[in-house]
Amino acid sequence: MSTRRLAKSLYRQLLREAEKLPSYNFRLYALRKIRDTFQTNKTINDFELIDREIATAKQSLEMLRRQAIIGHLYSAEKLVIENKKRLKHSDD
């Protein structure tokens, strides 16, 4: 697989795994960190550095998978911002 396709694949996998995190704050942090890191590393041309960053991304993917599992084992109530219930108005 080409380096570009591998990087895109890792990016999508990382985003998918980050979406599985049950904690709202951790989920948003992970998504923001993934996007920022890939955006920053987009212009790297050194193949050794690219290989190191891909290895780091693979480790991060495994860590996210473990954290998602652990987070679901010890989940808490959703935050107010996460609830999608509609408020009832008194004039309804």
TrEMBL record:
GO cellular component term of the entry, any: mitochondrion
One Pfam match: Complex1_LYR
Segments forming domain Complex 1 LYR protein: 8-63
BP GO terms, sorted: iron-sulfur cluster assembly
Domain of life: Eukaryota
Similarity comment: Belongs to the complex I LYR family.
Name of this protein: Protein bcn92
Species for this entry: Musca domestica
